[in-house]
Amino acid sequence: MKNVKKTVPVIASAFISLCFLVGCAESVVVTTDELIRDLDVSPTQSATYEQYSKKAIEDYFAVADGHVVGGETDYENEEVIAAASEAAAKLFAYACYNERTLDQYVFFAAQEGTTDISAGSAHAMKQEYYLRINETEKSCGYRYHYTIKYADCTGALSMFRDLFQSARTRITDETDLLYRLEGSNIRKGEKSDVFEVEMLECDWATGKDWGVHEIEMIKGDYIEPDKIEEDIVAFAGEDDITIRANINILAENMVKHAVILPDASEENGVEGYLIFMTVDTDVANNDEASLKMLRRANGSNDCEWVSGDDGSGLSIVFRIWENGLFRMYSVAEKWQGKINGFAGTADSSTQYYYSYSDRDCDMTKYLEMLEEAKTSKGE
Question: What is the dihedral of CA 55, 57, 60, 65, to 10 degrees?
Answer without folding.
Answer: -120
